[in-house]
Automatic annotation (TrEMBL):
<dbReference type="Pfam" id="PF23571">
    <property type="entry name" value="GH3_M"/>
</dbReference>
<dbReference type="InterPro" id="IPR055378">
    <property type="entry name" value="GH3_C"/>
</dbReference>
<dbReference type="Pfam" id="PF03321">
    <property type="entry name" value="GH3"/>
</dbReference>
<comment type="similarity">
    <text>Belongs to the IAA-amido conjugating enzyme family.</text>
</comment>
<dbReference type="GO" id="GO:0016881">
    <property type="term" value="F:acid-amino acid ligase activity"/>
</dbReference>
<dbReference type="Pfam" id="PF23572">
    <property type="entry name" value="GH3_C"/>
</dbReference>
<feature type="domain" description="GH3 middle">
    <location>
        <begin position="349"/>
        <end position="426"/>
    </location>
</feature>
<dbReference type="GO" id="GO:0005737">
    <property type="term" value="C:cytoplasm"/>
</dbReference>
<feature type="domain" description="GH3 C-terminal">
    <location>
        <begin position="442"/>
        <end position="553"/>
    </location>
</feature>
<protein>
    <recommendedName>
        <fullName>Jasmonic acid-amido synthetase JAR1</fullName>
    </recommendedName>
</protein>
<keyword id="KW-0436">Ligase</keyword>
<dbReference type="InterPro" id="IPR055377">
    <property type="entry name" value="GH3_M"/>
</dbReference>
<dbReference type="InterPro" id="IPR004993">
    <property type="entry name" value="GH3"/>
</dbReference>
């Protein structure tokens, strides 16, 4: 794709995307060859006897399937100062830190210039398809993005979140300008040290540039919902800042204050207009288009664990479309949303075949097993079948070889010769006590079924998570809810029973019937509990940008479990199987 971001041509990008996806098998072989040649001298590839070969057959025969645990000894060498080619041909100067949502601990993952180039390729392709459906004019974007300060690991090596590494890269600013995605907030706000102060200033900048805002975005849908829930509480303070031209004393960081003071001038007319807009809304429905009349859509990751936030986001968005961002992880990118008009719940992503080498393990097929070690034998990108579910294996330029990403996807069709993927769930996020196996998606469907009951009371679940309680025999599922109001005992008992009945896994149902799994427990939390969880994650070095509420609280999340347990106001036990 285009090397010079300054001369971005959306139609050319789409044509190049079509050409790449037309002969995906050839592109995949070339991509693997390039990755292996660039890293041919690494300790990792030498150790498994690849000996410079670059064909897929030799690669699969020599290199094992791995997860992050297998790579930790090699990454530890880099962290401790080994500048030899351990897993990458070039020295690693930056590490990305994962969110730690799945396993409760953050992972170090190499971040390289080539990985940044892949990121820009994805951004460019995504914008080209998006802008074809929702053309935007010259202006700015209200982006709720937050860049943490990089941590110095040692001389010559820093670590930060994957998003921070992207935002701080020298090419980021020009790239955003070229695809008409320039943030309305100063970079001092994006990289400010205090989340609450930065969020306040993001909202204030959006209001100051309200007529220029072309779209609203964040990395995850949760961040947009959190931002506008916060707006409901502070909008009058924001109006006062605009009216007086003086920044709130709540903003204490010197660099943020300096940057924002340059933007603020007394503007009573704008303050009055915003006050009238907010006062005229019913339950804040349509807040975003009321504030930002030129906005064309909302953009962010909206699949998987983000789906529960979509009803509230739609409430704020009114008639504005929600556009799901592309498919990737802290480790790297995988696929692009080429059909931005699709609802986020059913969006498909087309694999970009030149950003990595991809393999797929059939999720439920136990027949395709390797005779040597009993391992399921993965298949190639163009060999997948429509309707089947797979676990993704990635090989990318930043030193990950046959890496089990831990995601389960469903193939829904093909775009030229590249598969369209629908995200199903994280492989490791399971509620299980004995023979039962319920995924993140099963949990989400169970909660959704119950929330229909409280919707009749004009109530909603702000956020939720789960836990397997084995402190008593038999063990049982615990679902934590934070709500925006109170419901009657009868309604809450009905919600509890509904969730219990909604877990349809055969192992769960049979275990509940014979009482080898105890009654499901619904624990209602104090208002603001999940904000305390967010604050805890930020205190531990995480960023709001990558925050995702863990949907299953295991032993590795013991501090989060303590926060939740200390804020329970009421518990209900299911009688669905009595």
């Amino acid at each position: 794709m285009l090397d010079k971001m300054e001369h971005f041509d959306p139609q050319q990008v789409i044509e190049e995307f079509d050409a790449l996806t037309m002969d995906a098998e050839r592109v995949q072989r070339e991509t693997l060859k390039h990755i292996l040649e660039e890293n041919s001298q690494t300790e990792y590839l030498h150790g498994f006897g690849l000996r410079g070969r670059t064909d897929p057959e030799s690669y699969k025969a020599c290199i094992p399937l791995v997860d992050h645990t297998d790579l930790e000894p090699y990454i530890q060498k880099i962290l401790e100062g080994d500048d030899s080619p351990v897993i990458t041909g070039k020295p690693v100067a930056t590490m990305s830190l994962s969110s730690g949502t799945t396993q409760g601990k953050r992972k170090f993952i190499p971040f390289t210039d080539e990985l940044m180039e892949c990121t820009l390729n994805v951004f460019r392709a995504s914008f080209a398809f998006r802008n074809r459906e929702f053309p935007i004019g010259k202006g700015k974007a209200l982006q709720f993005i937050y860049g943490s300060k990089p941590v110095k690991v040692r001389d010559g090596l820093t670590a930060g979140t994957a998003t921070t590494n992207v935002y701080r890269h020298p090419r980021f600013k020009a790239a955003m300008e070229s695809i008409q995605s320039q943030p309305c907030s100063p970079y001092e706000v994006i990289f400010g040290p205090d989340f609450q102060q930065c969020l306040y200033c993001h909202l204030l900048c959006g209001l100051l540039y309200r007529n220029e805002i072309q779209f609203v975005s964040s990395t995850f849908a949760h961040s947009m919902v959190h931002a506008f829930r916060t707006f409901e509480l502070i909008w009058e303070d924001l109006c006062e800042d605009i009216r007086s031209g003086e920044l709130s004393t709540k903003i204490t960081d010197p660099s943020v204050r300096t940057a924002m003071t340059k933007l603020l001038k007394p503007n009573p007319e704008l303050a009055n207009l915003i006050y009238e807009k907010c006062s005229g809304l019913s339950s804040w429905y349509g807040l975003i288009p009321a504030l930002f009349p030129s906005a064309k859509y909302l953009f962010g990751i909206m699949t998987g664990s983000m789906e529960p936030y979509l009803p509230k986001l739609r409430h704020y968005a009114g008639e504005l479309p929600l556009v799901s961002a592309d498919y990737g992880a802290s480790e790297g990118w995988i696929a692009v949303n080429v059909d931005p008009k699709s609802p986020p719940e059913s969006v498909n992503f087309v694999v970009l075949p030149n950003i990595g080498y991809f393999e797929f393990i059939p999720a439920r097929d136990n027949n395709q097993r390797d005779d040597v070690d009993g391992e399921v034998r993965p298949i190639g990108l163009t060999e997948v079948k429509v309707g089947e579910e797979y676990e993704i294996i990635v090989t990318i330029c930043s030193g990950l070889y046959r890496y089990r990403l831990g995601d389960i996807v469903k193939v829904t069709g093909f775009y030229n010769s590249c598969p369209k993927l629908n995200f199903v769930c994280r492989k490791n996020l399971l509620l299980t006590i004995n023979i039962d196996k319920n995924t993140e998606k099963d949990l989400q469907l169970s909660v959704e079924a119950a929330t229909k009951i409280i919707a009749n009371e004009k109530l909603e679940v702000v956020d939720f998570t789960s836990h397997v309680d084995m402190s008593s025999d038999p063990g049982h599922y615990v679902i934590f809810w934070e709500m925006n109001g109170e419901a009657s005992e009868m309604v809450m008992n009905e919600c509890c029973n509904c969730m219990d009945r909604s877990f349809l896994d055969a192992g769960y149902v049979s275990s509940r019937k014979v009482k080898s799994i105890g009654p499901l427990e619904l624990r209602v939390l104090r208002k603001g509990t999940f904000h305390k969880v967010l604050e805890h994650v930020l205190k531990m070095g995480g960023t709001a940008n990558q925050f995702k509420t863990p949907r299953c609280i295991g032993a590795a999340h013991h501090r989060i479990l303590t926060i939740l347990s200390n804020n329970v106001v009421k518990s209900y036990f299911s009688t669905a199987y009595d």
